[in-house]
Amino acid sequence: MHKPLFTVLAALLLGLAPAVPTALAKSPTQVLSDSTLATRTKAALADVNKTAAARLNVEVRKGKLQFGGFVETAFQKSEALRVGADMAGEGNVFDAIVVLEAGRSAGRTLDDTTIQAKLKTALARASLGEAIAINTEVRNGEVLLSGFVGTESAKSAAGRAAEGISGVRTVHNRIAVVP
């Protein structure tokens, strides 16, 4: 009886917080619809795979759903995408999931934290207009950019900003363009 309540509360905390910045560019009805889809998707994902649910960002913009984050197995990725397709429909899911082995040293974690701070600063300075709607994650020197922007040029500029940071090995620019 308490599990559904916990799942919904966890989904609200984990699923809606990232959606707040993009809410400003939407109508009240669209915000409600997108927030509801994000919450329901996060809850459904938690029911299937709690580990993946805890690690993935769930973003929704104009009815388009995106999962972003690092997972450890291809199975976790496929399960998340299956849940997304069930919730939003097959053609409405953007895949921004990267499969990457877990485990990193304390030194690597510190390096990743430094890269993350530099990345957020670089995105803020890049005059993207929508940098606040871009999620960033760093693991083992690999940068993942996800979220939604309104133009291809904003997506490209974010990728260039990430590539210019020392210590970055790979940039996975999985930002979705949804005008």
Structure commentary:
By secondary structure, the protein is of the alpha/beta class. The protein folds into 2 domains: 2-99; 106-177, Histidine-containing Protein, Chain: A, CATH 3.30.1340. Helix content is 52%, strand content 22%. It is built from 7 helices and 7 strands; from the N terminus they run ααααββαβαββαββ. The protein has helices at 2-16, 20-23, 28-48, 50-55, 74-88, 106-125, 152-163; strands spanning 57-61, 64-71, 93-99, 134-139, 142-149, 170-173, 176-177. Strands 4, 5, 6 and 7 form a 4-stranded mixed sheet that branches. α1 packs across α3 (28-48) and α3 (28-48) packs across α5. The longest helix has 21 residues, at 28-48. The radius of gyration is 16 Å and the shape is globular. The N and C termini lie far apart (41 Å). Residues 1-24 have low confidence and may be disordered.
Element pattern in H and E: HHHHEEHEHEEHEE
Mean pLDDT: 81
Tell me roughly what share of residues is in helical segments.
Answer: 40-55%
Number of helix segments?
7
Structural class by helix and strand composition: alpha/beta
Principal-axes shape call: globular
Number of separate structural domains: 2
Number of E-type strands: 7
Beta-strand content estimate: 15-25%
Distance from first to last alpha carbon? 41 Å
What is the CA-based Rg, rounded?
Answer: 16 Å
Largest sheet: 4 strands, mixed
Which segments are poorly predicted (pLDDT under 50) over 5 or more consecutive residues?
A: 1-24
